[in-house]
Design goal:
single chain; three-stranded antiparallel β-sheet; 58% helix; alpha+beta; 8 strands
Length: 596
């Protein structure tokens, strides 16, 4: 179950009749304005303060397809800008407005209700609140805390309490998501703690450890047909494309979704009480197995999703330079755009009504859709439409379970996960199907095999139900196309300059830290840079842990880096302003040294 703020945001966007990205960009622009006002409050020259404002305002990495990651990034930056404004106000005037404390509470509640990965923000927020409340006079600290904290907590509590209450009235569950349920967390912690003599990369719960758990937990064994049947193969097949040594294992965090799907298939997610009951039963049986010695539960597990292996700390740290390089290279030169739509036409119409969003213009090449089923001796399957002669291709491929095919191939254990659909461009219809299975590539040398074709080759049985040429009149409004073109040009400038700006900012930050330690330099700009660098470092550290235990590498999935790109630009912009403060500080220290 996902956090509920993003669906609520979609509904609000629909009711207001705005384009989907408009509200998201509005949140981000408000954050930029708040940051600019914070700099003005800190006595920064208004014209110089425009530099970080413009740098952040035209952030090209915040433009992309409709996805909750961009909305989450806008909320994160809004909260950081808000708390920095409060730090500036408290430092300059000695007080904080009650309304600002309440609004900050609402912002923190929005973070809690938007995504499950807020752990990376804890160090950043701890430092920010320390800077907000710290004063030499303890009495002032107590007075400020007494004024700010109740209103902040009130702003935090109102939205969360509203969601909790609605869930209780609707579903009888006083909670927000299943991953916060005690029985859920205990079950997965125990499952991931089970150690066997078989360790596989990117896999926390192997089939071997699952079999051991099935032996001691009848409650978990009820879902064995799903976890080791078609559903398990669907999740496990994702590993075959990336890590052959762990092919068909349920990798990384996908074990959560696999078990959730298994419970949902048996109807346990229709009732929160039934869901809690079955997780409680599984956890109690696994705990007895651990206590009796039937299971080796010696693996250290933290946090909920990823077990920390102390012997791999060097591996985590070794990932960080590559992450930093990916970040400062502008996500390897990624340029902003809106992705082309894909999926059933009826869903497209629903999406257009809900989001009021412009759709990317169709490509000049013809688009084809091929569907059918494929039986092979291998659980690894992939089908693509490729041009003739062979050249680079881009496809959308999906594979799902099929009971009708399974009935006709009872003797084939792989027949459940067999139905496929593939979409791809095919200029003039001069294309063929490329089938990949069991590490082998097979081409069916016919122009987009005709509907009804039934072919057998290299241990595979391929049947084609339909071949359709997809027509689309989806077009962008000229304003949207103009905006994308402008941001592409801006993106090229950022991509070329970002690494040099980051190096310069780091040199300035190092000198500022020296001045802080040995020259008595104190500045709100330095505090802002510190907040930004802590946020960047913590996010990259969490991504290193995420990368090590998930089924796919983080680099290349730019959505993971979108929340820290504003922090990087903030870090660069603030250090640009620090550059104008340092000469006076260093000259002052030099004069004092001469007098002494």
């Amino acid at each position: 179950m996902k956090a509920p703020l993003y669906p609520l945001y979609i509904a609000a966007n629909y009711l207001l009749g705005l384009q989907f990205k408009t509200m998201e960009h509005a949140i981000y622009i408000v954050a930029c304005v708040i940051l600019y006002l914070a700099l003005i409050k800190a006595k920064v020259n208004p014209f110089l303060a425009l530099v970080p404002f413009i740098l952040l305002l035209f952030n090209p990495y915040h433009h992309g397809s409709v996805e909750r990651g961009w909305f989450y990034a806008a909320i994160v930056f809004l909260v950081i800008a808000g708390i920095y404004y409060m730090i500036s106000m408290r430092t300059v005037s000695g007080s904080v407005r009650s309304s600002h404390a309440f609004l900050l509470g609402l912002g923190l509640a929005s973070l809690y209700l938007s995504r499950e990965e807020t752990i990376w923000l804890y160090p950043l927020l701890a430092v920010a609140f320390t800077l907000l409340f710290y004063q030499p006079d303890r009495q002032r600290v107590l007075l400020l805390t007494a004024k700010v904290l109740p209103l902040l907590l009130l702003g935090l509590a109102i939205p969360i309490s509203a969601v909790l209450s609605m869930n209780y009235m609707k579903y009888g569950h006083f909670g927000i998501k299943d991953s916060a349920v005690k029985e859920f967390k205990t079950t997965f912690k125990l499952m991931k703690s089970v150690r066997t003599d078989e360790e596989k990369p990117f896999v926390d719960v192997t089939h071997k450890s699952l079999n051991q758990m099935f032996d001691v937990s009848p409650a978990l064994a009820r879902f064995q047909p799903h976890l080791q049947g078609g559903l398990g193969k669907q999740w496990g097949g994702l590993m075959c494309k990336r890590h052959a040594e762990a092919c068909n294992e349920i990798g990384g965090g996908y074990i959560f979704w696999a078990l959730r799907d298994a419970l949902a298939a048996e109807g346990y997610y229709q009732s929160p009480n039934e869901m809690r009951s079955v997780y409680s039963e599984i956890s109690e049986e696994l705990q007895r197995g651990c206590s009796s010695g039937q299971l080796d539960c010696s693996r250290t597990v933290w946090p909920l999703r990823y077990p920390i292996r102390l012997e791999r700390i060097d591996d985590y740290l070794a990932k960080l330079p590559a992450f930093v390089n990916y970040m400062v290279s502008g996500l390897h030169g990624r340029l902003p755009s809106y992705g082309a739509s894909h999926g059933p036409d009826e869903r497209l119409e629903v999406f257009k009504r809900l989001s009021n969003t412009a759709i990317k213009a169709k490509t000049q090449r013809d688009q084809y859709s091929v569907s059918g089923w494929l039986i092979s001796d291998s659980q690894e399957k992939y089908i693509a439409i490729v041009p003739k002669p062979f050249a680079a291709y881009t496809n959308l491929f999906s594979l799902k379970s099929s009971r009708d095919v399974q009935r006709h191939f009872i003797d084939n254990a792989d027949s459940a996960l067999s139905r496929f659909n593939v979409e791809g461009p095919c200029k003039g219809g001069q294309c063929e199907l490329l089938v990949m299975s069991g590490g082998e590539h097979t081409k069916f040398d016919q122009a987009l095999i005709r509907p009804g074709a039934d072919l057998k080759k290299a241990g595979m049985h391929l049947h084609i139900d339909s071949v359709k040429q997809k027509e689309s009149n989806q077009q962008l409004f000229w304003v949207d196309q103009f905006k994308i073109n402008v941001f592409k040009k801006i993106g090229k400038l950022y991509n070329h300059a970002l690494v040099y700006l980051a190096l310069l900012a780091t040199m300035v930050f190092a000198i500022a830290c020296f001045a802080f330690l040995f020259r008595g330099y104190r500045s709100l700009l330095l505090w802002g840079s510190l907040i930004a660098i802590i946020g960047i470092a913590t996010r990259l550290g969490v991504l290193a842990l995420f990368d090590d235990f998930t089924q796919s590498p983080v680099i290349g999935q730019f959505r993971h880096f979108i929340p820290i790109m504003p922090l990087l630009l903030l870090y660069i912009g603030l250090n640009f302003l620090i550059l104008f403060e340092l000469p006076a500080v260093l000259r002052k220290s030099t004069r004092m040294g001469v007098k002494n």
